[in-house]
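in:
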């Protein structure tokens, strides 16, 4: 059982929690086989921002939206920022795209062709100029770079090329800007990816300096990888900068966070709580990186935000004193039981109460369905755009 005094701190932490939603999750998406268009999806960056603001309106904890360049390219980023602010949200991380151009067939910043490397690096620099206009703190880098066949290119030279591009980009960052380096085991490269794992990302970030940190996308690991270990390690090293949350059953499935393995999400959030890293002031960006190919998008994103909140609430309910005592005593079963007690607590009433205290509907998905927003966007928007993949 949880003492009432503890609950006050739990509620306070949950109230302060922030989750960023991605612009591309609001747009049409699919697999390499088929994109199933949905009525009412956004046609412009402004409409994606409006949907993100709607998610924030019903959840109260999603006050920023990540953009993806060039999918969200506009002429005036200052105006776009003002537009977002008028709707009550901020523009968050700027995601770069050096994977959808013919030139990048053999890689972007690791391409053997210096001219193509220049073009890719220039795109990263351009993204920082966009950050200057939007006031964004984070530049998020994901590289599809890699090779498909042994011998195709020199693995070590590619690391050198990567380091050069990262350094030039890092040096362009302003005082209050950061670089998030995301890793991914495979896909689209199937033999050797240039940033395949947290260790590679970590090593480059160490070389670059304190403004470079690792982004953990929960879908980017080999099956069975202990992600909470990575979280604990990077927190200890001061190098965890962000999460891209999503769920996977097989590969980079981009399903709703907490859908495939809510227990894993709880274990991750426990390490965050253990590291006192939940508060936005600590500096970790908790972002979603998902695609809603067959389910309704806005309700799925609201649900995802709620799933993160539920895992977080359970993590906050872990009796850390009891856990420490059991661990120190070497009482394996008692220690495990402390964790499981928290995980098995139904936190939905607590979160419902918290929402009501903040003037929100206790059931954000139901409130969204009642709001008429979906009907409005279906009526107003004809021919929504595609997120970018799966064309
Ligand atoms: C591709 O795997 C990817 O899903 C990465 O996770 C990026 O974060 C995302 O696309 C947006 O570029
Ligand atoms: Mn990602
Ligand atoms: Mn991904």
């Amino acid at each position: 059982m949880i003492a009432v005094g503890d609950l006050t701190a739990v509620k306070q932490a949950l109230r302060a929690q922030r989750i960023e939603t991605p612009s591309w999750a609001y747009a049409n998406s699919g697999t390499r086989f088929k994109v199933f268009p949905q009525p009412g999806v956004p046609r412009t960056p402004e409409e994606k921002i409006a949907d993100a603001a709607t998610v924030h309106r019903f959840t109260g904890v999603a006050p920023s939206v990540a953009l993806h360049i060039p999918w969200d390219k506009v002429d005036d980023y200052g105006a776009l920022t003002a537009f977002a602010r008028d709707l009550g949200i901020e523009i968050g991380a700027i995601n770069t795209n050096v994977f959808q151009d013919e030139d990048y067939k053999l890689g972007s910043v690791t391409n053997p062709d210096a001219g193509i490397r220049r073009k890719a690096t220039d795109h990263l620099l351009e993204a920082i100029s966009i950050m200057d206009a939007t006031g964004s703190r984070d530049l998020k880098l994901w590289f599809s770079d890699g090779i498909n066949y042994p011998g195709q290119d020199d693995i070590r030279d590619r690391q050198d090329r990567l380091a050069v591009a990262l350094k030039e980009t890092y040096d362009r960052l302003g005082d209050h800007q950061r670089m998030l380096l995301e890793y991914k085991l495979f896909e689209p490269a199937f033999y050797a990816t240039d940033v395949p794992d947290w260790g590679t990302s970590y090593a480059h970030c160490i070389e670059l300096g304190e403004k470079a940190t690792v982004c953990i996308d929960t879908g980017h690991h080999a099956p069975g990888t202990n992600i909470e270990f990575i979280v604990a390690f990077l927190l200890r090293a001061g190098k965890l900068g962000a999460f891209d949350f999503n769920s996977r059953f097989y590969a980079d499935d981009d399903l709703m966070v907490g859908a495939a393995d809510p227990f894993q999400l709880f274990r991750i959030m426990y390490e965050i709580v253990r590291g006192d890293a939940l508060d936005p002031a600590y500096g970790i960006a908790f972002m979603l990186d998902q695609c809603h190919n067959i389910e309704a998008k806005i309700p799925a994103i609201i649900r995802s935000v709620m799933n993160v909140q539920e895992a977080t609430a359970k993590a906050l309910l872990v009796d850390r004193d009891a856990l420490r005592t059991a661990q120190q005593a070497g009482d394996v079963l008692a220690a495990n039981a402390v964790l499981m007690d928290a995980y098995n607590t139904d936190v939905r009433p607590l979160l419902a109460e918290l929402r009501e205290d903040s003037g929100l509907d206790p059931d954000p998905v139901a409130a969204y369905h009642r709001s008429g927003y979906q009907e409005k966007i279906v009526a107003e928007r004809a021919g929504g755009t595609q997120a970018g993949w799966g064309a």
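note: The mean pLDDT is 96.
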